[in-house]
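Fold it.
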Amino acid sequence: MFTLPNIYKSKHARYFILVPIVLLAFGLYFSTHVVLDSSLAGGVSIVLQTSSSVNQQQLAQEISTKLHVPNPSIQSSPGGLQITFAINDSIARAEQDIVDLYSYSQNYSSSQVNVTTTRIALNSSPNNATLQAQLSAALKEENLSMSGMIASLSGELSTLSPFIGNVALNTSLPPSAMTALAQSSYAKAGSVYQNQTLAAVRDIIPFTTYSYQQLTPTLGNYFLGQLEFVILVAFIIISIVVFFIFRSFGPAFAVVFGAANDMVFAIGAMGLFGIPLGIASIGGLLMLIGYAIDTDLLNAVRILKRHEGSPEDRAFASMKTGLTMTTAAIVSFGVLFVVSLYAYVPTYYEISGVVLFGLIGDIFTTWFGNASIVLFFKKRKDRV
């Protein structure tokens, strides 16, 4: 019966660390080619399933003329055709008006609290000059905030008039009614714009089914910032937990390095194979962190916490177990990737693609990089 040799007993084992370093360089280089999809970059993305033959350059010109959008992107995607272009300027400006409205609304609420508390204090000390000055400042801030809300809402309604018509603004509305009107007007305008866009595209090219995504740049930047924060917090928590388990920086570094390297490699693969970075693929990256930590901890615990055999034997045993786990996951996500590629379900396509490439990188990162670092740490600790 054929048995695999223990690679960790090889005299060249110390060079294994070069493998994840190469993968890291690959990921860093191709990560510059990653593009944000409309869920993060903002814009409109329409995926069509059509049986019609398409001249992409001519289609781009017709869409640009009919929808009045500059440089629309036309790409053949698995199962259909993807059309991407910048969102309507009026929709984008209206969103900024809503953001300003919310800011003024918060200021108005704070000013009301200050006015109320100052008046209560003045009931006890009606001649207090300091409290009178504070009340005057609070009333002034309250009026300015209300004026700002009215201006923002008026600007939004005016900007959205091509989609919702002229809406009369009652300036005596309370702040809650103003924000409700702003939200409903924006939602209605977005729905009208979507229907107009799809009707215009259908006049140019017939299609059977479609998916439509619309996001303004302001909201896209907010989502991107929040997602970056979530990933950063995830790595900080992982570092703390791993350090708590092993009480040493060596294993903690090995585990965090393995997870980070897998993520960078997956992002590089996204850049190489044209998988866009969006909310769905960010979810795949978070799943990948979980898989990477699982195999890295399996390896570190067996090498450092157990005592049967040599450290090299324990590393090899954990590699066989880890490869079985990772292979099963690769098969599962590989099937999902092929199915989503054929049917072109963008969410599943992005998630499965990210996790699939990340798991392939995890094989090399964990069993050549993470294992080498932990073994080096173990041998150094034993000598001390």
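The mean pLDDT is 85.
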